[in-house]
């Protein structure tokens, strides 16, 4: 087999066999296929696409390019979740304890934030003492003991994706649905769960902003997951405005704690209960997603989800008492209210711009090696459809210095667009693909 022939075949719109894809991925990982040939192949995929057979072969090849987590020692159906990333997305912190409290074991490996979107590990680590660096044995032992662990990646999972993503990032080939779907699903397969609920976000603050493209991505991932022998369900959720009210690590943790105490923002509670409903159903603790949703909400109302979160925090080195005083979490030295001068109905929110504002305050990373500040960020209490009167307080900016706070407050104001007539509220969930 010659790499050049496989590049040619894909360039001409041909379908590669599983053996040909194996040859490409193996060769790329072991260094016998150089970056320039793999880049050319990625570009050919970008223009020609891939069939579901090819996507599945690529995904399985990548999933098995390194270590694979074996969760079989943990009793029960293990259900994972994945979000394609958004602004203010603290869903995992609420959802996973809800699901674990309902009796579905959760062994979740999360990532860090980059660009305008945040990462669950950074958020969790803003709780004093909490470690997300669990080794494989500690991770599995914790899930067996208390039914939940939320940690960074353990072991060398999916090295092919790391290498391929690095290449795609510098060759303008990230935005290819077959390559994105294979990248995400390969990591989920390697993480070992039996079933996966995908939160595929669309809208201005999402990785995949166009709704149609997000649907196509969701369909592709669900199909690959099924062909790989796992149950996959995708929920399409709106990211045209931040989820909840807080953006920034400590602020988001405080909001997650309030939500776990059943006092959180309505949109965050709704998303967590819907995703939780599917996870609990897939974990066979409910007869359907609706019953699963009721059970998920019951875990909030009864305090069982919060108790599970406390258990997880304690198991990972934190002090559960700190959760009783979220106001004592790291606080920024300057807090400025954002006051809106105009009047009307909120028509649109520049969600990505708000994510970038939080990032430049220090809540996120522009580059992988940037150090984040847990205490900074912003809150935005208004949603599309809300009516604003002059001097309405939109929220707050939490910053390291007064001038940075003032600049960020101006950016928040610029991100809110008003209409002179009432504006309909948008549904949070647009579709479910199974
Ligand atoms: N997220 C991933 O994990 N992979 C991609 O290719 C794009 C987004």
From TrEMBL:
A Gene Ontology MF term for this entry? Answer: thymidine phosphorylase activity
**Catalytic activity entry:** 2'-deoxyuridine + phosphate = 2-deoxy-alpha-D-ribose 1-phosphate + uracil; uridine + phosphate = alpha-D-ribose 1-phosphate + uracil; thymidine + phosphate = 2-deoxy-alpha-D-ribose 1-phosphate + thymine
Annotated keywords:
Glycosyltransferase, Transferase
What is the enzyme's class at the highest EC level?
transferase
Show where the Pyrimidine nucleoside phosphorylase C-terminal domain sits.
Answer: 345-419
* GO CC terms, sorted: cytosol
| Lineage: superkingdom | Bacteria
Which is a GO BP term held by this UniProt record? pyrimidine nucleobase metabolic process
User: EC number(s) per UniProt?
Assistant: 2.4.2.2
User: Mind telling me which InterPro entries this protein's record contains?
Assistant: Glycosyl_Trfase_fam3, Glycosyl_Trfase_fam3_N_dom, Glycosyl_Trfase_fam3_N_dom_sf, Nuc_phospho_transferase, PYNP-like_C_sf, PYNP_C, Pyrmidine_PPas_bac/euk, Pyrmidine_PPase_CS
NCBIfam families cross-referenced by the UniProt entry: PRK05820.1, Y_phosphoryl
Its annotated function is as follows:
Catalyzes phosphorolysis of the pyrimidine nucleosides uridine, thymidine and 2'-deoxyuridine with the formation of the corresponding pyrimidine base and ribose-1-phosphate.
Q: Quaternary state and partners of this protein?
A: Homodimer.
Q: Which family does it belong to?
A: Belongs to the thymidine/pyrimidine-nucleoside phosphorylase family.
Q: What is this protein called?
A: Pyrimidine-nucleoside phosphorylase
Name the source organism.
Hydrogenispora ethanolica
């Amino acid at each position: 087999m010659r790499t050049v022939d496989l590049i040619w075949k894909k360039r001409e719109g041909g379908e590669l066999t599983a053996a040909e894809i194996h040859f490409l991925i193996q060769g790329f990982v072991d260094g016998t296929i150089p970056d320039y040939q793999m880049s050319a192949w990625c570009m050919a995929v970008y223009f020609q696409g891939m069939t579901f057979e090819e996507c599945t072969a690529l995904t399985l090849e990548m999933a098995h390019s390194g270590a694979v987590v074996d969760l079989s020692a943990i009793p029960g159906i293990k259900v994972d979740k994945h979000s394609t990333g958004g602004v203010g997305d603290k869903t995992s912190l609420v959802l996973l304890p809800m699901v674990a409290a309902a009796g579905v074991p959760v062994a979740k490996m999360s990532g860090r934030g980059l660009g305008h979107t945040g990462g669950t590990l950074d958020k969790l680590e803003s709780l004093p003492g909490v470690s997300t660096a669990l080794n494989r044995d500690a991770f599995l032992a914790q899930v067996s003991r208390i039914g939940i662990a939320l940690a960074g990646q353990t072991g060398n999972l999916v090295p092919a994706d790391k290498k391929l993503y690095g290449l795609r990032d510098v060759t303008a080939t990230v935005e290819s649905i077959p390559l994105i779907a294979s990248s995400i699903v390969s990591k989920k397969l390697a993480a070992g769960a039996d079933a996966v609920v995908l939160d595929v976000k669309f809208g201005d603050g999402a990785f995949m902003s166009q709704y149609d493209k997000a649907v196509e991505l969701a369909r592709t991932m669900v199909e690959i997951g099924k062909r790989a022998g796992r149950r996959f369900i995708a929920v399409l959720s709106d990211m045209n405005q931040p989820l909840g009210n807080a953006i920034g690590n400590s602020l988001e943790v405080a909001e997650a704690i309030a939500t776990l105490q059943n006092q959180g923002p309505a949109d965050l509670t709704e998303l967590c209960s819907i995703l939780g409903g599917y996870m609990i159903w897939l974990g066979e603790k409910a007869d359907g997603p609706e019953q699963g949703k009721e059970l998920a909400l019951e875990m909030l109302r009864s305090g069982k989800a919060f108790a599970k979160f406390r258990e997880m925090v304690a198991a990972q080195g934190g002090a559960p008492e700190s959760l009783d005083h979220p106001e004592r979490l790291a606080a920024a030295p300057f807090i400025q209210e954002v006051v809106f001068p105009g009047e009307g109905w909120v028509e649109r929110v520049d969600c990505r711009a708000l994510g970038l504002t939080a990032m430049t305050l220090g809540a996120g990373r522009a580059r992988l090696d940037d150090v984040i500040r847990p205490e900074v960020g912003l809150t935005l209490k208004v949603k599309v459809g809300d009516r604003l009167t002059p001097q309405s307080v939109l929220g707050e900016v939490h910053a390291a210095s007064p001038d940075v706070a003032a600049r960020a407050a101006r950016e928040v104001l610029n991100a809110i667009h008003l209409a002179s007539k009432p504006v309909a509220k948008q549904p949070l969930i647009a579709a479910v693909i199974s």
